[in-house]
Amino acid sequence: MEATPPVRSHDDGTTVGLFWVSADGVYVGAPATAPAPCVVLKTSGPRVSGPHERDWAWSEIAGLEVTVRSTLQRWTTHAATFAAAALDAWVPSSPTEMAVSITAPEGTVLTPVYSSAAVAYSGREVDLSRRLISRFTQGTATPTAMTEWWVQTRPTRILRSREREALLELWLASA
């Protein structure tokens, strides 16, 4: 991906698991400025924006999977970037990417998205996020509860991993 993702303040949304939750939607990873692709999860279904825009209804897709680099890989990259900056050898690079795979009737659509976590998601966050996505594709939950939570609470700080995990568990329990 060539474009740089927008700088979002916590007035616009926050990271919870593999998602960026805001009033305007639930994104897998972080929202990105056009033409960079991003995936937004709507009540009606997932939407891929960017150069190859596409919308689906949840009932149309057989699966939606997110591939995330491991915590070790992300920490290693973070440490290498920090060391390079300290040695004045740092060259800006694009943000960490994840991959979203949507299995639809016309085949599998694979798109990169930006990660909304600065360094790493906890393994539990990844697991809970994937379980929630599975509920969306099964039709037993929608992202509406997540967007409503943002509108009602608008947290003023970055949530800690335990808080993010608790929210994901709450959304799973209410699904």
Radius of gyration over all CA atoms, rounded: 16 Å
Number of strands: 9
* Strand arrangement across the biggest beta sheet: 1-2-3-4-5-6
What separation lies between the terminal Cα atoms?
34 Å
Assign the structural class, choosing from mainly alpha, mainly beta, alpha/beta, alpha+beta, or little secondary structure. Answer: alpha+beta
The helix-strand sequence is EEEEEEEHEEHHH
Strand content: 15-25%
Largest sheet: 6 strands, antiparallel
The level of helicity is 25-40%
What is the 3D shape?
A: globular
pLDDT < 50 stretches: 1-10, 71-93
Number of helices: 4
Oligomerization: single chain
**Arithmetic mean pLDDT:** 82
Reconstruct the topology from this structure:
Elements: E1 14-16, E2 19-22, E3 25-28, E4 38-41, E5 46-49, E6 54-55, E7 63-67, H1 71-86, E8 97-104, E9 107-114, H2 123-138, H3 144-153, H4 161-173
Antiparallel strand pairs: 1-2, 2-3, 3-4, 4-5, 5-6, 7-8, 8-9
Helix pairs in contact: 2-4
